[in-house]
Design a protein that fits this description.
Helix content: 25-40%
Strand order of the largest sheet: 10-9-13-14-15
Number of strands: 15
Radius of gyration: 27 Å
Number of helices: 16
Shape: flat
Strand content: 5-15%
Structural class: alpha/beta
Distance between the termini: 57 Å
């Protein structure tokens, strides 16, 4: 069964085993691709690709091999034409329908989407059932549903969990957002900062032993070195809520990776919304009963902590530049004053950003640029976080 496709994938660097290939054969035999070319593509990628880093290589090989196959898009052009209504009036928000939509699983929504496509014969808008626009339906675009599949149109509130017909052919190797394992690998770089403790040499030094033995014409010279102890202390501050809701899954992966890694002597995690201001929270719900003043943080956590901010740095400028009405003695006088104090206290600091610099709204850009001027800012990607870790290691 097109075995040359298997060899093409291997020649492109994809390590596809015979077990995985036979699993694909079995899946096709059971019609798990639903007799569609798009389903076949996703089935192949699911079973044959082990890492997101290989998506680009797989896509290129797939396109090269099946370039003569006519691709039938997931959504008909007629339906896309019906959904091209950017200036249509908006329907009314229905709280009960919104709760019903949120109770559906992604599998249920996908199944319903296939059924609607087969049933729909005309344009529908401002409704809650058909594929349409400006309504409570979980299929379409420009709608009000808190969850669903976007079909056509442009992203607005970024609530859709999938975009119908979207296939991205791009290199994921350096700009892909991190999963838990990739993040753990990147964070491992911080362990390089661990220092040599002041103890007698008791750890076998392989390199020095080989070098000295070679210099002695083969006469064994065993060498020992001082033991290395992990001295890394990390202070992680994460933005929670608002525009960061779009990155909730990514931040959850970040939290799991950091807490599982075990690479740090000490790890302190706090949360804030947009900017720390005068206090930080111990949980992402920002419970005021579980908060600590920023002044306490500055007084009790020593400058040896490596400070890592995670946030999109997007807010109205008055939120960080306007002075607080009646600041308490010792507390920051404004949002930007709080950030400046943290920067002065923790010289080894970086800001990891899951979002790009905003291209809309000059005032939002002003806030972003002010934060970037205080903290070295890197994208929350494989390459970005590795560069950020190197920055934290700089003497």
């Amino acid at each position: 069964m097109f075995e040359d496709f298997l060899y093409l994938l291997r020649s492109r660097g994809l390590k596809v085993s015979l077990t995985e290939w036979m699993a694909l054969v079995q899946a096709l035999h059971e019609n798990l691709h639903q007799a569609s070319f798009t389903g076949f593509y996703h089935l192949c990628r699911c079973l044959l690709v082990k890492s997101e880093a290989d998506f680009d290589a797989f896509d290129r090989a797939f396109l090269d091999y099946f370039q003569e196959v006519d691709f039938q898009q997931e959504v008909s052009q007629e339906l896309l034409n019906w959904l091209d209504r950017p200036n249509a009036p908006m329907g009314e928000y229905d709280e009960q329908q919104a709760e019903l939509n949120e109770s559906l699983s992604t599998l249920e929504i996908e199944t319903m989407f296939q059924e609607r496509k087969n049933e729909q014969r005309e344009q529908h808008n401002c409704g809650n059932y058909w594929v349409g626009t400006h309504g409570m339906s979980i299929f379409g675009n420009m709608g009000l549903s808190p969850v669903g599949i976007r079909v056509g149109g442009q992203s607005q509130s970024r609530r859709a969990f999938r975009v119908a017909g979207e296939r991205r052919y791009r290199d994921f190797r350096h700009d892909n957002t991190l999963d838990i394992r990739q993040l753990q690998v990147a964070l491992r770089r911080l362990r390089q900062f661990s220092g040599l403790v002041d103890l007698p040499p008791s750890e076998f030094d392989v390199d020095s032993t080989i070098q000295d033995t070679a210099n002695s014409a083969g006469l064994l010279k065993v060498r020992y070195k001082k033991p290395r102890q992990n001295t890394v202390k990390v202070l992680l501050l994460m933005d929670s809520g608002g525009s960061m809701e779009h990155y909730a899954q990514l931040c959850s992966a970040l939290f799991q990776a950091v807490t599982r890694a075990g690479y740090f002597k000490e790890l302190k995690i706090f949360y804030f919304h947009n900017c720390p201001y005068t206090r930080l929270y111990r949980d992402p719900t920002l419970n005021p009963n579980n908060a600590v003043p920023v002044s306490w943080l500055l007084s009790n956590l020593t400058p040896e902590y490596k400070l890592i901010f995670v946030g999109d740095a997007q807010m109205s400028p008055h939120e960080i530049f306007d002075p607080f009405p009646s600041p308490r003695e010792g507390e920051p006088a404004s949002g930007v004053d709080c950030l400046r104090r943290l920067r002065e206290r923790y010289r080894h600091a970086v800001w990891l950003n899951p979002s790009d610099r905003p291209e809309w709204g000059g005032e939002w850009t002003e806030s972003y640029d002010a934060i970037e001027g205080l903290f070295p800012m890197y994208p929350l990607t494989v390459e970005g976080i590795e560069t950020g870790m190197k920055k934290l290691l700089a003497r």
